[in-house]
Design brief:
The protein is mostly helical. Helix 4 packs antiparallel against helix 5, helix 5 packs antiparallel against helix 6 and helix 6 runs antiparallel to helix 7. The chain is flat, with a radius of gyration of 20 Å. It starts with 14 loop residues before the first helix and ends with a helix. The C terminus is likely disordered.
């Protein structure tokens, strides 16, 4: 699998630790990918990019009970996109940079929301729609098989990070999960302790 190719990825570690490793890998591969895009001479009309994102994001309220088309989350997402596009080149490199800018803006906005807030789910849905639409668009526009394959690989990592983020939040919602995140080196001890003594006993193993 894509995750097994990542150096330092430990399938027995906490969900949070896995998420952090995957995000680091995304940043690393992203730099390499952007270098490869310098040889791609494809022009990308900015109006077309805007249309691709708007079409995808505007579909989200139709299948979500948490969003309406006039939701501030959607309006802010479009504002960030349009502002970024003004400064970016109209090519595949600019398109990849836009994806990264939107990802950073999403992570920043998400971090400001209260744990368990409905706004988090709304942000998740909007950003996934926008990011995935841009990713598909980039793959379609790319001329070389190598670039297409690299972007698909990055996309797989983004989706894996999405799932690990949610799993990490659920993990941190339990006493055992919080202990596992607080003491990641002792994850294996916790798991074996949980089997031997139950969750309460496992927590006590790591309690100072």
């Amino acid at each position: 699998t894509e995750l097994s190719k990542i150096e330092g990825y430990d399938p027995t570690s906490t969900k949070l630790a896995k998420y952090q490793v995957v995000k680091t890998e995304i940043a690393s591969r992203g730099k390499i990918f952007k270098e490869s895009l310098k040889n791609e001479k494809v022009l990308v009309p900015k109006k077309e990019v805007t249309s691709v994102v708007q079409k995808a994001v505007n579909e989200v309220p139709k299948r979500s009970l948490l969003l309406q088309s006039t939701d501030p989350v959607i309006k802010q997402y479009f504002r960030v996109m349009k502002s970024a596009l003004v400064e970016l080149p109209g090519n595949l490199l600019g398109l990849q940079k836009l994806i990264e800018i939107l990802d950073d803006a999403y992570e920043n906005a998400r971090g400001k929301q209260a744990f368990g807030s409905d706004k988090i789910s709304a942000l998740d849905d909007v950003h996934k729609a926008g990011r995935d639409a841009l990713t598909k668009y980039l793959i379609e526009k790319a001329q070389t098989t190598e670039v297409k394959a690299m972007k698909r690989s990055l996309w797989n990592l983004y989706r894996a990070a999405d799932m690990l983020k949610i799993a990490a939040e659920k993990e941190s919602g339990s006493i055992l999960g919080r202990k596992m995140q607080e003491y990641p080196i002792t994850t294996k001890v916790i798991k074996s302790g949980a089997q031997a003594t139950g969750i309460g006993g496992a927590v006590n193993i790591l309690t100072p």
